[in-house]
């Protein structure tokens, strides 16, 4: 029944565009990468123009456990949900009880008046509805992934910093009205840009702490906007690969290849379109992990790396990242992120040749942090794609035609077409 209600609820939210664009958590076609790309595209652009930028990382205290049932039901009504669905939701949340058991000793049963049931199908959707109005009235850029929230804005002039402080003052009132709490001790400010004055912000009477680096949705971003994760992810992937090597007796491709694809490679590719390596030493550091995995497979020990890849139907991680870049771009001007794509990419003037009909305009940049960011670095490669690829009617057809291009000469030396997702 929960699944049925969830489908009805999600259709209503999508049709009415109820959930704001700032929410990227548990929303159709959005994810951690879309959150990071959307937010830091603006941040890197501002820093590239010489602006100082301050980013405030917010933290809720027990966010999912403190959602007030009464306030949630009231918000469902404000979003024009039908009465029958609201009554079902009220009955589903109502009359829940809990108790604590420690070493056989039991507390009394107590009624639960707050919190979305963890592990439930509806819990995450209801939380998104509850927190949806958090960014109303804010002038700074605010973006969310469920409860993970950050606020960023220009901080070059005094009036810019006043705007950020005013937004923090407004944010302070939100948990009071909605019976939630901020964990102010975990609030951190990341100061970016050469002209930054390292202003001290407040939340009520509390001064917010500064940080030189923050883990943002699993990706570390520092005060110089260095986002490279190469050392950390290569180390973690090598540890997992070492465990596989020690614990798995069979070294056949039927055993090692699936384990590598499921357990190791995802470590190297999580949000990689956001933090992709560009220095040769970092590119090679990641590639060495796959070299090691391929060398483990019985019967391939004496082959070259390129020979092993060909034999296994794999491609270099660098080639996979290029493919991922192209797929990410397709989702913006043509696919499921079209609305956001208007803010991230600009189409170039159409020409009368038979070239790519969705050519992107190359943005200007001064700094490497902007040059290497997804929305700038992909333009040259995207514009090389032929018209029949970029104008595909669906993502699946695009992937199929893209693979043929990548196995040809559009991006360099020919490579054998294989299973990119394996």
TrEMBL record:
It comes from the Eukaryota. PROSITE patterns: RT_POL (PS50878). Residues 1-221 form the Reverse transcriptase domain. InterPro entries: DNA/RNA_pol_sf, RT_dom. This is Reverse transcriptase domain-containing protein. It comes from Chrysemys picta bellii.
């Amino acid at each position: 029944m929960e699944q049925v209600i969830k489908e009805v609820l999600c259709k209503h939210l999508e049709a009415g565009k109820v959930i704001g664009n700032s929410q990227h958590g548990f929303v159709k076609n959005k994810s951690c990468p879309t959150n990071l790309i959307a937010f830091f595209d603006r941040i890197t652009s501002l820093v590239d123009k010489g602006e100082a930028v301050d980013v405030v990382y917010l933290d809720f205290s027990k966010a999912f456990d403190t959602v007030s049932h009464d306030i949630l039901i009231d918000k469902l009504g404000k979003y024009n949900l039908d009465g029958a669905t609201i009554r079902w939701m009220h009955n589903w949340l109502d009359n829940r009880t809990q108790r604590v058991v420690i070493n056989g000793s039991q507390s009394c049963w107590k009624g639960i008046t707050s919190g979305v049931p963890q592990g439930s199908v509806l819990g995450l959707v209801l939380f998104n509805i509850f927190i949806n109005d958090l960014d109303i009235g804010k002038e700074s850029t605010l973006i969310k992934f469920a409860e993970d929230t950050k606020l960023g804005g220009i901080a070059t002039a005094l009036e810019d910093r006043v705007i950020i402080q005013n937004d923090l003052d407004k944010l302070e009132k939100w948990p009071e009205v909605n019976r939630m709490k901020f964990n102010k001790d975990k609030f951190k400010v990341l100061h970016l840009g050469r002209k930054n004055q390292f202003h001290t912000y407040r939340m009520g009477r509390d001064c917010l702490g500064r940080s030189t680096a923050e883990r943002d949705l699993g990706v570390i971003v520092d005060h110089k906007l260095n986002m490279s994760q190469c050392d950390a992810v290569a180390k973690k992937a090598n540890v997992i690969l070492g465990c596989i090597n020690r614990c798995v007796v069979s070294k056949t491709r039927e055993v090692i290849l699936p384990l590598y694809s499921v357990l190791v490679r995802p470590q190297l590719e999580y949000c990689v379109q956001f933090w992709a390596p560009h220095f040769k030493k970092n590119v090679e550091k990641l590639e060495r992990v796959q070299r090691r995995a391929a060398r483990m497979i019985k019967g391939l020990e004496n082959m070259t790396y390129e020979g092993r890849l060909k034999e296994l139907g794999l491609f270099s991680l660098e080639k996979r990242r290029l493919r991922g870049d192209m797929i990410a771009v397709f989702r913006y001007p043509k696919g499921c992120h079209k609305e956001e794509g208007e803010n991230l990419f600009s189409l170039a003037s159409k020409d009368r040749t038979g070239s790519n009909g969705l050519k992107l305009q190359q943005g200007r940049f001064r700094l490497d942090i902007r040059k290497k960011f997804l929305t700038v670095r992909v333009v040259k490669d995207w514009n090389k794609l032929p018209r029949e690829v970029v104008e595909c009617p669906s993502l699946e057809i695009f992937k199929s035609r893209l693979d043929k291009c990548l196995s040809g000469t559009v991006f360099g030396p020919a490579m054998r077409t294989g299973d990119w997702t394996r």
